[in-house]
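Write out the 3D structure for:
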Amino acid sequence: MLATSALVLLACGGGPGAAGGERIAFLLPETKTARYETQDRPAFEARLAEICPSCEAIVHNAGHDAARQQSQAEAAITNGASVLVLDPVDAVSAGVIARHAAASDVPVVTYDRLLFDAPVAFHVTFDNERVGMIQAQALVAAVDDALEEGQLVVLNGATTDANAAEFRRGASLVFESRGVRIGAEVDVPDWSPDLAQESMERAIATLGRGSIVGVYSANDAMAGGAIAAMRSAGLAPLPPVTGQDAELAAIRRILTGEQHMTVYKSFRTQAQVAAEVAYALARDGAVPAGVATSEIDNGAGPVPTLRLTPVAVTRDTIATTVIADGMWTVDEVCRDLASACEQAGVSR
């Protein structure tokens, strides 16, 4: 795989103390970002079934509702979950979930977003500051000399998501080092495409169509909203727009020139690692040695952490990244876009 892989490759069952019939909960945060239901969930379920056919995956999506996620976690614990794999809606308030789990002797694996001031057994994520740097570097290179007279619009992720702060910090390091002018910057609640579109509409009205030379969007869903706003306002050609998550719609926008780039993160690898570590915790009560590459102090102590590697995707690298790694097929990417795919070197 293109993203760093550190699969535990656990043997299925067998051996002293091996678990059987364990229930492992996978608690996802929202549905507005396509990755969770199309990538993370199926990869987690498939890997758990592979390493432990008798285990049961309890999978819930909170739909961006922190209270609902807490109820889902409590129900999972009540129904016998031996491990929680949690991608929190709110990285602060979800500490209640981890503390409740600890009181019930249920370890928590945090997925993508870390919890603070709460007991966490393991954290699997990506190098999030690097994601922001990759996005900002690509945007600055794309707008180039236009930055001397124009300015950027910056659409950051939700403040309730700890990762959003890391993306923003990475991007800011690049923008500050280049002296980039930022005309408007917004933290978009819930990573909402609709709210991103509204924010972009306000930025266009305030700054003027001619002054916006690029858009930093922290993910693909918001990029779609920003692009819709610019198209509605008659911006042509569209300025370069960044993204993240390598959503299918974004890859197709990159092919047609509407979006400049995205960041590919191997959600399949992340979900597989989470399933394997969760099974190890259920089976042996411990994280396997050698899985973590670092530690993060979340306020409750050091958390063993695996940081996977993000990869930039542009029109020229679609074939060698998301297609080569099996995230999307040529047929999915190229449907009704045969000419654009041929020009980009994407073929069967």
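The first strand starts at residue 23 and ends at 28.
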